[in-house]
């Protein structure tokens, strides 16, 4: 008897792993966390690095746009500071009580029968506290965070003195481009090296491939960030 017509090829899973951003992705912007983070970063720049308050907004925008995070940009242009102190200042005073448990999201995540990791530029303590507030601490295989990608900063905190690259002055000159900017020692999204390192840590094969606009080279991974939100109906 022929059974060929009843045989179906078993397809391999479309994805190996899902990488989820954390901030303003797993919890909403209405929590006010993002606004407080921005304010705390600005306060750190003034109080700890001695940057003039009148320059903060433009400088912060330039650093974020060109380096992915303000912290990475500050290190690139010449500021040195203790990473743990920075994270404590920026995240330690956040209103975590504004992040509420999300049982619907937890149900969705628990029913996604696929490996899941958090991939955030934030520090581990911030990620753990946020996930606990959401009730999602047992929904992910691991957390890829700032400490995962970066060694402790060996330099002492800076008083803001020394040779600081004038990024605002750089872009004020006609013909200046981002290609001429100093490199940052901080590894973070959206840097391709950070993406590839996250894939390595998560043990995801980047070469068998459904490509996305978020990660290069093509991979089986999808990256859920604040620009690619889960919609819960």
Description:
- InterPro entries: HAD_2 (IPR041492), Pyr-5-nucltdase (IPR010237).
- The chain has helices at 33-47, 56-67, 70-76, 83-91, 103-110, 124-134, 146-149, 167-172, 192-201, and strands at residues 17-20, 115-119, 142-144, 222-224.
- By secondary structure, it is of the alpha/beta class.
- The chain folds into two domains: 10-28 and 100-150 and 186-233, Rossmann fold (3-Layer(aba) Sandwich); 33-94 and 151-185, no CATH class.
- It has a four-stranded parallel sheet with strand order 3-2-1-4.
- The longest helix is centred in the N-terminal third of the chain and has 15 residues, at 33-47.
- The protein is globular.
- The relative contact order is 0.19.
- The model is unreliable at 208-222 and 227-233 (pLDDT under 50).
CATH architecture of the largest domain: 3-Layer(aba) Sandwich
| CATH H-level homologous superfamily name of the largest domain | HAD superfamily/HAD-like
Unreliable stretches (pLDDT < 50, length at least 5) are 208-222, 227-233
Strand order in the sheet with the most strands:
3-2-1-4
Please, how many helices? Answer: 9
């Amino acid at each position: 008897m022929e059974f060929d017509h009843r045989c179906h090829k078993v397809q391999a899973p479309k994805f190996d792993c899902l990488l989820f951003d954390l901030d303003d992705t797993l919890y909403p912007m209405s929590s006010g966390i993002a606004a407080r983070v921005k304010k705390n970063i600005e306060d750190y720049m003034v109080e700890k690095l001695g940057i003039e308050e009148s320059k903060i907004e433009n400088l912060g925008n330039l650093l974020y746009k060109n380096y992915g995070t303000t912290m990475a940009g500050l290190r690139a242009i010449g500021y040195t500071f203790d990473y743990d102190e920075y994270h404590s200042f920026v995240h330690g005073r956040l209103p975590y009580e504004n992040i509420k448990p999300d049982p619907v999201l937890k149900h969705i995540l628990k029913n996604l029968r696929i490996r899941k990791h958090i991939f955030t530029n934030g520090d581990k303590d911030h990620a753990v506290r946020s996930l606990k507030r959401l009730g999602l601490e047992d929904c992910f295989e691991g957390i890829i965070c700032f400490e995962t990608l970066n060694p402790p900063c060996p330099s002492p905190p800076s008083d803001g003195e020394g040779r600081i690259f004038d990024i605002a002055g750089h872009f004020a000159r006609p013909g200046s481009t981002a290609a001429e900017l100093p490199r940052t020692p901080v590894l973070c999204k959206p840097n391709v090296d950070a993406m590839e390192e996250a894939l390595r840590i998560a043990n995801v094969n980047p070469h068998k491939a459904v490509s996305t606009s978020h990660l290069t080279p093509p991979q089986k991974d999808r990256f859920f960030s604040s620009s690619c939100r889960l919609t819960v109906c």
